[in-house]
Amino acid sequence: MEIRAVINLPATPNEVWTYLADVTKHSEWMIDAVRVEITSKILEGPGLTFDCLTPVGPFRLRDRMKILEWEPGHVMGVQHSGIVTGFGRFTLVPNTGGTQFCWDEAIQLPWHFGGKLGERVAKPILTGIWKRNLRGLRRRIIERQEAGLGLEPGGLINIGSEWELRHYGPEHVVRTSTQGLNLSREAEALVAVNSTGFPAPVFVQQLDPSSIVMERLDGPTMLEDLTSRPWTLSRHAKNLARLHRALGTVAAPSHWERVSEGESVVHLDLHPGNIKMSSRGPVVLNWSRSARGSSAFDAAVTYVILRTGTSRDGRFARLLIGTLRKRFSNIFLKEFGASEVLPRVREAAELRLLDADLSSHEREAVFALARDELD
Q1: For residue 89, what pLDDT is reported?
Q2: How far apart are CA 235 and CA 92, in angstroms?
Q3: Domains parsed from the chain with CATH numbers
């Protein structure tokens, strides 16, 4: 039995493919798919296997599938080997309106579905279902466009030593590693903390290994606010300690490496420059170094950064931060608990020294702090 369904989508083939490549999302637009479960170790490409749970009346049937064809932006071919056997193919062809999406199936129903007679009855029904599915796909593509997904990165917002931040639609930003680093850990961390309500950017999707999309946040960083309004020092230092305490209640994924005792998410770079003072309050940014450990160790790492880090934001900021640094650090230490932080400073300093981006001045300061010789 051969079936074809075609629809025009108002998006480029690459944009459509970005959504299609995650087969677990197919149940979002296929009305005859309850859930898609990946059964292979690989998550995309030839050799990927997955089960599609399909409702038939009160029953749930498993359609077992394997990717045989995979041409990003062009073709996805799937072999059926469950109750239904055969081969299906998605073909994406660019046209003036965006993309012509063709869904071709050559399948056989089992004998107890009536054989050839059953196929004659089933073909118009299945064709109608798959046409409805494609209309559902079109709605999802439009919804994603309205939400700013599947778009091309826009204008540059900010740039760091290892990343850049660009606009991505009206409500989101895309953070991309400029060194080709894998940002999957940052994506995992955002998912973990988002689920608990901890103040972090809302994760949207991962475009590729080195790019993630998240909500756009307006407002200064805590560091910028501190340098422009130094009278907020005490409040900011206390809020930083409270953020550490709150993060200590968030369990880290069990497969993450452990950097200290403890099972909670540790940020390992949680300082005023990585906190956005948004309209919904302080929001913690830049989760790429996240690991598993204890909030006390994470606070010790922050204490090392506060005491030894330097600002590259201008002479006045450097002078101001240098003047207020020790006071800010002491308030932070007292609020979190000096008895918990200080015993871990030497170990935190050792971790800090592994950062290849430290300047020679910062490196010397970290050594001095570890030896308790820093003024």
Answers
A1: 95
A2: 55
A3: 2-146 (3.30.530.20), 156-215 (3.30.200), 222-370 (3.90.1200.10)
